[in-house]
Design goal:
The N terminus is likely disordered. The chain is elongated, with a radius of gyration of 28 Å. α1 packs antiparallel against α3 and α5 packs across α6. The protein is mainly alpha-helical. It is built from seven helices and three strands; from the N terminus they run ααααβααββα.
């Protein structure tokens, strides 16, 4: 919806900081004014409007608070979208340098939410135990998977980067 409006991440970040700062400032001023007023202390003339028009300032604060939330949400979602896109491009590049067997193992891991046993890989693809071990070891050396040994069972897990890139 607003993705076309977000052209410059620095501008969005600056706007978000500005809106949040205004919200914090207004909240602090209203709290100080009410604290002084409730203790029957002298309220300086520049804080007096916050007491006299407190309903108006509460409305302004709620609007600024909503804008703070929206701007923070759009900043974070935009940043995450860019990061996810970069991760996908990186993964596509990495996949170009993998053998067909390694790609098949990665695809099987993605189907199984990133966890599969080494014996399941052998069974799924008809690999010998030695071939399975070598394929998985190559993927581990490249930092794509890691092996979690639990007793006699070797669990093969994808690193989080690969799992996060899948829709």
């Amino acid at each position: 919806m607003f993705s076309g409006l977000i052209k410059d991440q620095k501008l969005v970040f600056a706007f978000t900081i500005l809106v949040i700062s205004i919200f914090i400032f207004l909240t602090t001023v209203v709290i100080v004014a009410y604290m002084l007023f409730s203790e029957n202390k002298y309220v300086p003339f520049f804080l007096r409007p916050f007491i006299d028009y407190h309903v108006h300032f509460m409305l302004i604060m709620s609007i600024v608070g909503v804008f703070s939330g929206f701007s923070f949400y759009f900043l974070i979602s935009y940043t995450l979208k860019k990061e996810k896109s970069l991760i996908k491009k990186t993964i596509e590049l990495v996949r170009k340098f993998l053998s067909d067997d390694e790609k098949r193992v990665i695809d099987a891991l993605l189907e199984k939410q990133g966890l599969i046993t080494q014996s399941d890989v052998s069974r799924l693809f008809g690999f010998s135990r030695v071939k399975t071990h070598r394929v998985i070891k190559r993927l581990e050396k490249r930092g794509i998977v890691y092996i979690d040994k639990q007793g006699k069972i070797n669990y093969v897990r994808l690193v989080n980067t690969f799992l996060e890139s899948e829709p």
